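chain below, 261 aa
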Amino acid sequence: MVSELKLYVESLLNKGKRTDLRRFDEYREPITIEYGVSSKSAEGSARVTLGETIVIAGVKLGVDKPYPDNPDEGTIIVNSELLPLSSPDFEAGPPDVNAIELSRIVDRAIRESKALDFKKLCIKRGEKCWIVFIDIYSINDAGNLFDAANLAALAALKDARFPKYDTETGTVKYDERTEKHIELEKMPISCTILKIGKNFIFDPTIDEENSMDARLTVATADNDTICAMQKGGETPLSIDEIKTMVDMALNKREELLQHLK
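prediction:
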């Protein structure tokens, strides 16, 4: 049964309107990025505000043994925590499917775009490498956590500096920060587009997310390269609809990228 909310949101869209009066291709304002919001406990951190949606990301760097199939590479591990304070729909406890999906979308964009050269994270082949932990926390969920989390993760990586590593003892001295930054080879930008009825919209609010037929998050890297996609919602998308949504994401990439420069 179609909810009254969906009928209302879709009827507005059919008239060319949104509940908050934005254009279909318009992101909420302000879009702000603050760096170093947790400089004492994290090697890098950032807070992103996208309208009323607020996300914090932190980066921790640890040393461990590389995976046997990639003995000369480090790696990343992304975790998301949807805090109950950010939405009445979130509960304390182990990550649910929504938190897992958010982590995977952020991870896949960074990993598949080759934003980090994992070989540069190798300390000693087959023995020691850097592991980059990216932790994402929702502070207020007013819609579109996917794009906010992507920006927050990239900003936290930009902010991160390596702690001192003692090669003799094999220990990390977290109280001694070096001037060496994590090198970002590319900047994978995620754009999330919803389909509601026959309409396609950017940067959905909570009401719009609860009214969606389908969702597509498209991550693009330099030179308009698609590096990851994630589909959500119960309604299938046609090939032509996917092409339309991908083109929309590509056209919006530079606008979002500017906030990281």
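The chain is about 25% helix and 35% strand. The CA atoms of residues 49 and 141 lie 10 Å apart.
thats it, cya
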